[in-house]
Every structure is written in C-alpha cells, then in structure tokens.
Amino acid sequence: MAKIIGVKFKNTAKVYYFAPANENEVYEEKTGVVVETAKGLEYGTVVFGVKEVDEKEIVHPLKPVLRKATEKDEKTVKENEKKIPEAMDFAQEKITELNLQMKLIGAEYAFDGKKLVFYFTSDNRVDFRELVKVLASRFHVRIELRQIGIRDETKILGGIAPCGRECCCASCMSDFGKVSIKMAKNQGLHLNPGKISGLCGRLMCCLEYENDYYAEVYGKMPKVGGTVNTPEGQGTVVSNDMLKLISKVKISKGDGSEVYKDFPVDRLEFKKNKQSNENDDDNVSEDMKKILD
Fold it and tell me: How many CB atoms lie within 10 A of CB 49?
C-alpha cells in the first residue's frame, strides 16, 4: 500500500495522485498545494487528504507535493489569472492582423510565470510561427500554442447542457469516453442531431453513462413497429419503456376499433431484437455523420 493525496488542477475534473511531503501532515479538502509535475511546478487543489491505495492504482514514479500553498503562492496564482485577459486580447488582435484561420479559446500562465500557453481550434493546420514571435516579444516568456479539439473547447469554456446542468466535460468528467450512435439506438432515442448532440456539436457524453444497462435490455424488448402476440391478441408495438420493461401495444379489434395497452415484455411473444451492429455509425444520414466527425 502507498500513501497519497488527491489533487486536481484548474479546468479539469480529473484527480491526480501525489506523494505527501509529510505523511503525518493534514491536507484538508480545497487546500492549495504546490506540486511537482512533468511540466514543472504547478498549483493545485486538494480533493482528499492522505490515504492508502493499492500500488496497482499508482503510476510510478509518484511525484511529490512540495508544500502547502503559502500566501505568496496564492498571490502568484491570482496575479497570473489577472494577466490572462490582457494576453487574450493582444493575441486575438495579432491573430486578426496576421489573418490566421484559428479560433482562440483560452490561455494560462505556468505557476512560475515563465510560460504562457494559448489554446485554439482550427479546421486546418496553422502556421503560427510569426504569431509566436510577436507574442514572445510582447510578454517576454516562453510561448506555447496548443491546438485542441471541439470537445476540449467546450470543456474549457463550459456552459449549460440541454439537461439544464453544467456540461459534464466541464464539471465531472475526468476523461472523454467513446460515444457512438449505437448507444443512442440502444436507448431508443430518436436519431435527431439536435436532440442527442451537446454544445460541442458532438454526441452527448452522457449517452455512455447507462449504456451497459440499455445494451442488455435492448435485446429483451420488441422492435417498435414490430408485431407481437399479447394475452389479448396480436398487435403492433407503439413504444417501449426501457426502465420498466413495458411495451405499449396497439391491438385492432374485430369491429374495426383499436385499443392501446401496456404489457410487461415477459407477457409478450415476439422475435428477439438483435444487438445493434458495432458499425452502425457507418449507416447514418449525412447530418448524423457531422456530429460523429
């Protein structure tokens, strides 16, 4: 077993493990700490204090917590953040002057103030060498321009998702998972791009959360529009409740009338659904393909 503390950094929900500087020291939640990373010194926030975990859960070598953040450290972080708006405005001005086809998303200073990173998106490769020179001469620090994807853009900028909550990528997700049209089909969702895509224009990350359950249930439910035998005669499936395992069935009577009734799936006779194909993403409309790119 190894003793670690959990730390997370700005603009990420992922928790990283670090070795405590002193195993007997108390690290309270939300305490600022200065840690050593592959990028150099960074400022982070404690998510949980010292605890023991299995060695298998650790990626060695485990970097150390150098110290709890001092007043000077906290002041340094705040000063770095105050300089971001000016850096963004200047960079955007130069991007426009140089007519570069790139969208500036954000910027951040390294903890020691010796590096300034700009994040941008672009549909194509961008020759930003001249921009780097201009920025370096203006800010007198090492400049790094980092191209990110459209999902990373939403993660940095945040926003309110269609469900009314903050976007998962900006609030609670540590990493992006693989999301596919198959997941939407398993859940019986209408394949309407406006309904199953997030602010980034890609498939909503939350489709993955309960996919294991829906993938299992999908094979137990009759196909919507399919024919089933019920205790009251043959009918056509109108809709399925995947959580209650109930199907709404339209039954035609001999007098020409129709009735709609709900039946538990275990009281229906029908041809079992096949699991949706792994390559379903290749069999969708052009509009749907846009949110998969």
Answer: 15
Of 168, 148, 73, nearest to 111 by C-alpha is 73
Torsions phi, psi for 81 (to 5 deg): -65, -35
Q: Let me know if 181 is exposed, middle or buried by CB neighbors in 10 A (0-12, 13-18, 19+).
A: buried
Task: Give pLDDT tens digits along the chain (293 positions).
Answer: 788 889 998 877 888 899 887 767 888 888 999 998 888 889 999 999 888 888 777 877 888 899 999 999 999 999 999 999 999 999 999 999 999 999 999 999 999 999 999 999 999 899 999 999 999 999 999 999 999 999 999 998 889 998 899 999 888 888 888 899 999 988 888 888 888 999 999 999 999 998 999 999 988 899 889 999 999 999 999 999 999 999 999 999 878 789 999 999 999 998 876 655 545 555 555 565 556 55
Q: Taken in order 237, 241, 245, 248, is the CA torsion positive or negative?
A: negative
* pTM score of the predicted model: 0.77
The single residue listed with the structure tokens 């900028």 is 157
